[in-house]
Design brief:
The complex is a heterodimer of chains A (116) and B (113). Chain A has 116 residues and is mainly beta. Chain A is 0% helix and 49% strand. In chain A, strands 2, 4, 5, 6, 9, 10 and 11 form a seven-stranded mixed beta sheet that branches. In chain A, strands 1-3-8-7 form a four-stranded antiparallel beta sheet, with no helix packed on it. In chain A, a hairpin with a 5-residue loop joins strand 4 and strand 5. Chain A starts with a strand and ends with a strand. Chain B has 113 residues and is mostly beta strands. Chain B starts with a strand and ends with a strand. Classes of the chains: A mainly beta (116), B mainly beta (113). Chains A and B meet through strand 4, strand 5 and strand 10 of A and strand 4, strand 5 and strand 9 of B.
Chain lengths: 116, 113
């Protein structure tokens, strides 16, 4: 069964450092997402991406965050200067369709980011 | 703004019994709803979805009911199994968004053997 894969599974970084979280979405999917879940809290939407541009982002997704699809298979989330409060589980997701013909998003297993 | 709440944070059921997990949402314009299951240390896993033009949808051992009048969803799991133990989220999609899902805080389902 096709799945979304994320690497690494756990990333520890020092405050102020840049970090890149990587995702390989399901191969025929066109819409890509990042969500995060701070320990013990809700899953929160960060950003959606389609046709090589951001289609929607939340207020959490400030200038410290960026996304990129550098090639035909990877989808990355970069945090330029990490803060302690960026510590969370980050989930990548993809869906075959989006917009008003939305289909379900499939989530990866997540990358646990710990900022020390 | 959109908010999603769960009626019960933890639900404990006997193996083999039916489970009902409830979800209230606040945005009456939400038009698409997904139930996800999240096991410890894993990402949300799709269970079933329903669009706002339906009031019931059935899957394998699961049924989702949508009551738009009172802005309420329920997920019914038949013959609950130990593997069903997880946190369950309903995730409405706001009408003013084409992409994002709003997750609630979740209900933890514990299945007693």
């Amino acid at each position: 069964e096709p799945e979304v894969t994320q690497t690494p599974s756990h990333q520890v970084t020092q405050m102020g450092q840049e970090v890149i979280l990587r995702c390989v979405p399901i191969s025929n999917h066109l819409y890509f997402y990042w969500y995060r879940q701070i320990l013990g809290q809700k899953v929160e939407f960060l950003v959606s991406f389609y046709n090589n541009e951001i289609s929607e982002k939340s207020e959490i997704f400030d200038d410290q965050f960026s996304v990129e699809r550098p090639d035909g298979s990877n989808f990355t989330l970069k945090i330029r200067s990490t803060k302690l409060e960026d510590s969370a589980m980050y989930f990548c997701a993809s869906s075959a369709q989006g917009g008003r013909t939305n289909t379900e998003a499939f989530f990866g297993q997540g990358t646990r980011l710990t900022v020390v | 703004g959109e908010s999603v709440g769960l009626h019960l944070p933890t639900l404990s059921v006997q193996e083999g019994d039916n489970s009902i997990i409830n979800c209230a949402y606040s945005n009456s314009a939400s038009d698409y709803f997904i139930w996800y299951k999240q096991e410890s240390g894993k990402g949300p896993q799709f269970i079933i979805d329903i669009r706002s033009n339906m009031d019931k949808r059935q899957g394998q051992r699961v049924t989702v009911l949508l009551n738009k009048t009172v802005k309420h969803l329920s997920l019914q799991i038949a013959a609950t199994q130990p593997g069903d133990s997880a946190v369950y989220f309903c995730a409405p999609r706001p009408m003013d968004s084409s992409y994002k899902l709003i997750f609630g805080s979740g209900t933890r389902l514990l299945v007693r053997p």
